[in-house]
Structure formats: C-alpha cells, structure tokens
Amino acid sequence: MRRAILWIVGVLVTVPTVLQSAERPNVLLIVSDDQGYNDLGELGNGILTPNLDRLAKEGTRLTNFYVAWPACTPSRASLLTGRYPQRNGVYDMIRNEAPDYGHRYSAEEYAVSFERVGGMDEREVIIPEVLRSAGYKNGIFGKWDLGTLKRYMPTSRGFDDFYGFTNTGIDYFTHERYGVPSMVRNLSPSEADKGTYCTYLFEREALRFLGEHASQDPFFLYVPFNAPHNSSALEPEIRSSVQAPEKFKQMYPPVKAETRVTNKYRYGTPATVATAESRRRDYRAAVTCMDASIGKFIDTLERKQILDNTIVIFFSDNGGSGGADNAPLRGRKGQTWEGGIRVPCIVRWPDGGVKAGHVSDQFLSSLELLPSLAAAADTPLPTGVVLDGYDWWPTLRGEASSPRTEMFWKRRDLIGARVGKWKWVKMGDAGGLFDLESDIAEKKDHSKSHPEILAMLKARYADWIKEMESAEPRGPFRDF
To answer: Per the domain annotation, does 421 fall within a domain?
Structure first.
C-alpha cells in the first residue's frame, strides 16, 4: 500500500512537469554563412528565397540587427554564449593561415596546428546547456567552428546530436578543408557521405532529428549552414567561388564565361579562377538551395502542427562576401563598416506574440539570443556569468523599445562603436563618425562638425575595452 501511495504521489508530482515541458516552445535557429544584407528575395535584387520570404511574411524582419564580430568564429561563439568575443575569449579566428598561400597540411602537421587544437573555453556556458535544464533535446547539423578536439565538440557542450564539420569551411562535395577530411558525427570523424553536397546532408540530419523529437520533446535545433561561404578548397577554380548543385544554378540566367585566367592570384600564377559573373550566379544558387532545405523544415513543423509554437530565427553569421549584395550598406565581411556586422534577420513565433509581416528597425543583436531563449523556455540564466545580451521578446511584441543602446566591435586594429544613432568606425586609414539614422550607408563623416560626439564615442569605447580586459580571462587567446 505504501509503495502504491508513493507511486501515485510520484505520478501527481511528475505530471505538471511533463505538461510544462510540452508547452515550452521549440527552437529552430538557422544561421547562414556570409549572406549579404540585401540577399532576400522579398527585397527585390533577383535572388530566389521563397521560404525565407515566407518566414518574413509570417514573422518580423529585423533591419537593425548586428552580430558581434565581422567573421565567423567569434560571431558564432557570441551568439551561443550571449557574450562579447572579448569576454568569452574567442575574439579571433580558430584557423590556419598557411592554406591561404597554397599550403596543404599533412595529417601530422594538421594534428598539431592551431586550427586543430584551439577551441572555445570549456567554462563558457552556451544555449543548449541552458535549455537542457528545461528538458530540451538539442541538435546541431552544419558548421560548428569552435574547436575540433573532443572536449570542445558540440556533444561535449550540451548538444545531444551532431553531424557536420568543426572548422571554418569545407569543400561542399569532398567535405575536406584544404585537403583535410573534416566531417564528424558526434565525436567520430566520418567520410561516409563523401561526394554528397553538404547542404543536402545538413537538411537530411535536421529532418531526422525533427522526426525523432518533434511533438515528443521540446527541442533546440541549430542548423548553421556553410552556404553561401566560398569553398575551402586549394584549387583556385573551386576556391574562388561557391559550389552549388546544377539544378539551382539553372534557376538563374546563364553566364557568358565561367572562368578566367589571372596573373595576380595569391599563389601560383597564372591561375584559373571563377569570373565575377559566375561567382555571383553560384552564390545565389547556393542560397536558393539552402532556402529549399529551410522550406522542408518549415513544412515538417507545419505538418506536425507545431510550427506556430516553434521559435524560428534566421540570420547570417556576418556580412556578405564574394557574390553577396550588402546594399545599401558600406563594406563587407571582415570589416567594421555596417556591411560587415549588420545582417539580415527574421524571427517567427506567432504563439509568442511576434508580429506577422512586420519590419522592425529596433537596435538588436545576436547577443540577445541566449537570454531571450532562456526567457521563452522559462528556465534560469546561468549563475555567475556576465551576459552582454537582453531579453528581446517585449521589443518584438511591440511592448517596449529595445534595451540595447550601444554596441562595440574590435577585430585586431579594426574598430566599431555605436551609441544610439551614432557610430564611430576606424578601418585602418579610413573611418569617421556617422549618423546611422539618416545615413545607413556611412557616407557623410561628421567628425569635424560634431567633435564632442566623436569624443563621447571614443570614451565609451575605451570604457568598454577596460571592462573587457578586467573580465575573468578566457581562452584560447587571453594570456593567463
């Protein structure tokens, strides 16, 4: 009898927990790689993205959304931690430079290179670890870019399931990074799918994950595509463009010439490289292929009748490069002009009150993801951790203005600082003070006409640098 009573009490205690878990929103986070600010079909530049356009019509498109660094590795660390790169320790690229000059690593060389041994500090707490405490199943399929050793891998950091590559880029078909096989399942290297276009593989694995967990567990599904990043192959003809399936290339007008010969290639001249016209076509085809995969995710969620209570977030990891269109922004990937750090972003969550068909110019960033997803899942934030992001749901519901009033960027000696509508940029010998409210393209420098505002931004930037330097040090770059 005592056992029976304890069993009944146990059931009564656990039922509310199960019900609460079932009511928690699912999360589908999609991050593209090097996609331009203007590269959405609904913006009218000719690129084909019907599924992203659908998300924009059914959700809110953010036009004033930033990432924390103008290239991939630090940007990805920040979106997962909610912390500036200078605070979480990943404030530069975890990559090898030698392939930029035509060097192919031997297996022995690669095994001890920084790209192989570097990784995000193990003390950092990331989104899947926060959501796991609320009963979420966590999957990632695509580009990790935060360390290749087992202790740095996704399944060692809160993810339950991983298939993808761990470094900064690969050949879309061989899955090699400059000749090094790079695909991994959970903790084990795999060449089982060599020859298959990797966007299709990430689509396949994400759909498998949805089949296993959608409608059963609350889930966090992170799909960081490598599209439309250039191929990481040593061959100049491949490396100089984006790889894309032929059927998606054929959706765009034919080009006059696929390749050209140049005597100014970074290594080995003369070299055959893609023409600007074919690079543009290939870039667009890769985006359209990715968009088709996104459409399958949305269709699956809709078929399972859980789409409206799934938070769907899409953005690019940094500004566009190669064949991208960043108009009307100035600059591109790798720079602290707006074109390197302001990116397209769409959020869809009808059950959470996110407006449909809305365009928001509120100042928001990828640093907001962790606190916002924790709030949506009704789970506590990590203790003892300083976050640089805010809960964005009141802003996206139209209940309050964005709590973000400033943001800072530092890539080596390249600097960006935004306070309110004003932005100070230092890009080598170029830069200036710009009023983003009236000049999103950063054309008119106000340094001489508003020296007091420039001084204020420089002072705020100096304060931020001091705060970052006084933060508890994190690897891999800090000396401690």
So the answer is: no
CATH of the domain at 71: 3.40.720.10
Q: How far is CA 321 from the centre of its chain?
A: 15
Of the candidates 227, 224, 165, 292, the residue with the CA atom closest to the CA atom of residue 28: 224
pLDDT tens figures, 432-476: 999 999 999 999 999 999 999 999 999 999 999 999 999 999 999
CA dihedral over 38, 43, 45, 49, signed as positive or negative:
positive
The count of structural domains within the chain is 1
> pTM (2 decimals)?
0.95
Query: Helix or strand or coil: residue 387?
Result: coil
Q: Is residue 438 part of a domain?
A: no
Say if residue 228 is preceded by a cis peptide, omega within 30 of 0: yes
| Alpha carbon distance 231, 223 (integer Å) | 18
Tokens 């966007």 correspond to what residue?
199
Q: 49-93, pLDDT tens digit by residue?
A: 999 999 999 999 999 999 999 999 999 999 999 999 999 999 999
In a domain, 474, yes or no: no
Per DSSP, the three-state class of 183 is strand
